[in-house]
Specification:
By secondary structure, this protein is an alpha/beta fold. The protein is 34% helix and 21% strand. The termini are far apart.
Length: 422
């Protein structure tokens, strides 16, 4: 007999679409409606089978695996906790508590994507909003250094360009869409205006926009950029009813990094002297925004936090996971719901493979070729409840659609916390 679940949250990306319909039959997900291609795969490919934990490739009982994980952490002088972005906020809180207890460095996947956004936010502040406000009010949308049609396929339909809202009842007809990027993308093909800029000139273009909105004349434009288009964008920004800039890793991972984002936040703040304007990062993983939120509550910092001295310290380039591993400063690692081997540089992955490590993740995502101890968990939002933060930092409750036969990240971390030495 099949069961149908309505309004389920998809945790694949930062959009956290909460209108998904799931049909479950014989403890397997059979049908998924309304989700994008990535979301359908996220649900349909999930294997709920009971899987035992492993130590060095051999299946063991849970008590033995937990004891082995505790032993690795107890022996370490400089342990690293990394990941967090695909687990629940409840699990993230336990990870932070464990880091505090053992004096570890704790870092999320933000350190390799939107960490410059956090640094800019701390430096100059951010004028932001919710996706509901965007849907209801925004008549100008600027997508800068991001490609949501590939990375966030339902963003246009649910929240931005095509969505129908209170003051945008005609959807796309009531909006102007601008894309700023270094190359044409699938998103730029759908835009009303596409400003193709030279790589590495984002900061200069934003500085030029700041001057233009204040009525200053620019004698010489930015190299390789059509000045007429920049002037047109400045006019659109000043004259719109409600504008929002969505930005991605095209800004955070290009030359300038945090300076790019700080300049964008400053531009947006200055635009609020003329109209209503906001900025929002296009967050990738389902709960990476939650990782930043939880660590900020508990330590005062969003990521790259060392607890080694008994008080939290943030150190970009020092306590970020890539640097900890590439510089061979971590002597043990606890990876939670992430796959650093797929994203980290070779030097960092090489050191990670050389030190004792533990991997906590849903069964199909475990890394037996890297971790000594594998602890397969339930998946929050499928067979475990929890909380996740959307890219606009709005928390949503994750429901379950099938029975839970494996422990959650929160439960495993709680057991480790009770057993490790302080």
């Amino acid at each position: 007999m099949s069961q149908v679940f309505q309004n389920i949250v998809c945790k694949f990306c930062g959009c956290l679409c909460d209108d998904i319909t799931i049909e479950v039959e014989d403890a397997r997900i059979k049908k998924v409606k309304k989700a994008c291609v990535s979301g359908r795969g996220y649900f349909l490919d999930y294997d709920p089978s009971d899987v035992k934990p492993m130590i060095d490739g051999q299946e063991v009982e849970w008590d033995e695996a937990i004891a082995a994980a505790v032993d690795i952490l107890d022996r370490a002088d400089s342990p690293l906790i990394y990941g967090l972005s695909s687990t629940s906020s409840e699990g993230q809180r336990k990870a932070a508590k464990l880091a505090d207890r053992i004096g570890a460095t704790i870092d999320s996947t933000s350190s390799v994507c939107h960490f410059p956004t956090s640094q800019a936010f701390q430096a100059v502040g951010e004028a932001t909003c919710t996706l509901g406000e965007v849907k209801d009010r925004a008549d100008l949308m600027v997508f800068w250094g991001c490609n949501p049609m590939i990375a966030h396929p339902r963003h246009f339909a649910r929240y931005s360009a095509n969505a129908k809202g209170m003051l945008t009842k005609n959807g796309r007809k009531d909006r102007t869409v601008v894309v700023v990027d270094v190359r044409p993308t699938k998103t730029s093909k759908l835009a009303d205006h596409f400003l193709q800029i030279k790589p590495g000139t984002d900061y200069e273009v934003m500085t030029t926009l700041r001057a233009l909105i204040h009525g200053k004349k620019i004698g010489k434009g930015v190299e390789g950029v059509d000045m007429q288009q920049v002037e047109q964008l400045a006019d659109l920004m000043k004259s719109c009813r409600y504008g929002v800039t969505f930005f991605g890793m095209g800004l955070t991972m290009s030359p300038g990094r945090a300076y790019n984002i700080a300049e964008l936040f400053t531009l947006v703040a200055e635009l609020n002297k003329f109209t209503r304007f906001s900025a929002m990062p296009m967050r990738g993983h389902g709960n990476v925004a939650g990782a930043d939120q939880v660590l900020a509550w508990l330590s005062g910092y969003p990521t790259a936090v060392s607890m080694a001295c008994g008080v939290p310290k943030m150190g970009p380039g020092e306590f970020t996971s890539v640097d900890m591993l590439a510089n061979k400063e971590a002597d043990a690692a606890l990876i939670i719901a992430s796959n650093p081997a797929a994203h980290f540089p070779q030097a960092a992955v090489k050191h990670l493979k050389s030190i004792p490590s533990i991997h906590i993740a849903p069964a199909g995502e475990c890394l037996p070729d890297i971790a000594n101890v594998i602890l397969p968990t339930a998946c929050c939002g499928i067979d475990a409840p929890g909380t996740a933060y959307r890219m606009d930092n709005v928390p949503l409750r994750l429901q379950t659609v099938m029975p839970n036969i494996r422990p959650t990240d929160e439960e495993i971390l709680s057991r480790i916390i009770k057993a490790v030495k302080q």
